[in-house]
Design goal:
mainly alpha; two-stranded antiparallel sheet; 2 strands; 5% strand
Length: 191
C-alpha cells in the first residue's frame, strides 16, 4: 500500500472547456437500447440498472461506437463526447471510483490507438486529466479485506501499466507491475 508514494501529485487539473463549443447529437448503445446524448445533462440520466451508469462512466461506448460505426464515428466525435462527459462531472478530482477510472484510461488510450493518433496529439487538458486520474487510482487502490481484491486491483494495475508505457511514465509503469505481482500471487494458486 505504500507503493503509491512513488507517484508525484500532478499539477492542478485545468480543462479549459466550454459547453458552448460542443455540438452533441449521438446515440450510445447501452445493453439493449440507445441513450441519446444531445446535451451535457444527458450524462446524468438516472438508471434502474447501476451497470448502465457504469457503462457510461467507464467510456466503453467510445470503443463500441468506434468499432461498430467505424467511419461515421470519427476521432472528433469521440473527443466531443469525452469532453461533454468531463464537463458533466461536478468535480473530477473527487471521483474516487478506481475501477471506473481505470476503465476510462484504458478505453481512451485504445481509442487513441485505433484512430492511429500520435500521443503528442492528445490535448494537454486531456493528458492532465489522465495523469490526475492515474494519481487518484494510485491513491485509492482497491485492496479489500481478506485479499478479496479480485479483478478490481488487477484492473487498477492494468490501467497504470498501460498509461505508464503509453505516456512513458516509469512511476506508473513500476507501480502497475508491482500491483500485478502482488495480485497474481493471490488469484493464481499453484496446486
Amino acid at each position: 500500500k505504500k507503493l503509491y508514494k512513488l507517484i508525484k501529485k500532478p499539477k492542478n487539473l485545468c480543462l479549459n472547456l466550454s459547453a458552448d463549443e460542443l455540438s452533441l447529437n449521438e446515440k450510445i448503445y447501452s445493453f439493449d437500447r440507445f441513450i441519446e446524448i444531445k446535451n451535457i445533462s444527458d450524462w446524468k440520466k438516472k438508471f434502474i440498472d447501476r451497470e448502465e451508469k457504469n457503462l457510461l462512466n467507464r467510456w466503453h461506448w467510445l470503443l463500441i461506437k468506434t468499432v461498430n460505426e467505424n467511419k461515421e464515428f470519427n476521432y472528433k466525435k469521440g473527443m466531443t463526447l469525452i469532453y461533454s462527459w468531463l464537463l458533466s462531472q461536478e468535480n473530477l478530482t473527487k471521483n474516487h471510483n478506481s475501477y471506473d477510472a481505470s476503465e476510462r484510461i484504458v478505453n481512451f488510450l485504445l481509442f487513441q490507438l485505433y484512430h492511429q493518433k500520435d500521443l503528442t496529439e492528445i490535448p494537454v487538458s486531456l493528458k492532465n486529466y489522465l495523469y490526475v486520474t492515474a494519481y487518484q487510482i494510485a491513491n485509492n487502490l482497491e485492496f479489500n479485506d481478506n485479499d478479496l481484491t479480485g479483478n478490481h486491483l488487477l484492473n487498477n494495475s492494468r490501467a497504470l501499466i498501460i498509461l505508464g508505457l503509453t505516456l512513458k511514465s516509469k512511476e506508473y509503469t513500476n507501480l502497475g507491475f508491482e500491483l500485478l505481482k502482488f495480485i497474481l500471487s493471490k488469484i493464481i494458486v499453484d496446486k
